[in-house]
Amino acid sequence: MSTTTVHLVRHGEVHNPEKVLYGRLPGYRLSDRGQQMAQRVGEHLAPADVALVRASPLLRAQQTAAPIAAAHDLPVEADQRLIESGNVFEGHRMGHGAARFQDPRNWRHFANPFRPSWGEPFRDQVARVMESIHDARDRAEGREAVLVLHQLPIWLIRRSAEGRPLWHHPGRRECSLCSVTSLHFVGPHLSEVSYAEPAAALLDGAVDATGGKLA
């Protein structure tokens, strides 16, 4: 049977001076450092036998995918199934103002960490992204495909692939900016998951989606 690899790439650092949870809001672009990260991951994947590059329709993912696709003379295909997870606190600073956990009006959103109740259910995210992954595996059979998306959906796919519960502590995700989580298939069957951080040298001082320091 043929071997196929589908790489899940998290986008680079985003220009977010207000430090809000930007979620699916349009217009959030890569920062200057995020563009450097995208170049690093593009260089990392340049030797790979990439047959397909797809990305979330959000600008930060499209910008991260651009140097990857350019290295292989491929277009970037937008895939709605790869979009960021939904979140009721989108547009707010986490822990501040309207998104404060201490505000009793928000307690209903934190009532069920297994679903979760503040956003798109974990299982729904896994279902839509896995559909895109298997479609990409079919398209790139015997070669490699790259999907550029967002931290939470990538981490949920990895936990699902490794047979772990989907609920988890957000601070313990192994999915840094412009990291590459690779799913290795033999025929239609997943055989291995590997992880790389080609932009690790640029992570010191970088910020994540909520404005928190990564390193």
From TrEMBL:
Q: Name one GO cellular component term.
A: cytoplasm
- Specify the superkingdom: Bacteria
Tell me the organism: Brachybacterium phenoliresistens
What name is this protein filed under?
Fructose-2,6-bisphosphatase
Q: Give the matching CDD domains.
A: HP_PGM_like (cd07067)
Q: Which GO terms describe its molecular function?
A: phosphatase activity
Q: Which InterPro entries match?
A: His_Pase_superF_clade-1 (IPR013078), His_PPase_superfam (IPR029033), PGM_Phosphatase (IPR050275)
